[in-house]
Amino acid sequence: MMRALFFFPLVLLAACNQASSVHSERTRDWYMQHDTERLARVPECKNDAAQLATPDCQNAIAAQQQITVLGK
User: What is the rounded CA–CA span in Å between residue 21 and residue 2?
Assistant: First the structure.
């Protein structure tokens, strides 16, 4: 029981630390207006399947696809 009380706060701290390193969610329109960030984010998303499923990556990729097909 004492071990559980000791490790529980450590697990919570580790989870909070990991969550803070995640990219904030931005809209497709934001990515369309910020070329540098979009061009950096799309390869990151395509390189990591877990990130690819996030709304932020979906927005970055959708913005890139729209710009590629229709232009700005």
Answer: 30
What are the sequence ranges of the domains in the chain?
A: 25-72
Closest-CA residue to 27 (of 2, 54, 60, 61): 60
Note whether 57 and 51 are within 8 A (CB): yes
Per-residue pLDDT in tens (0 to 9) along the chain, 72 residues: 555 555 556 555 555 544 444 568 899 999 999 999 999 999 999 999 999 999 999 999 999 999 999 887
pTM of the model: 0.66
Reduced to 3 states (helix: H, G, I; strand: E, B; else coil), residue 65 is helix
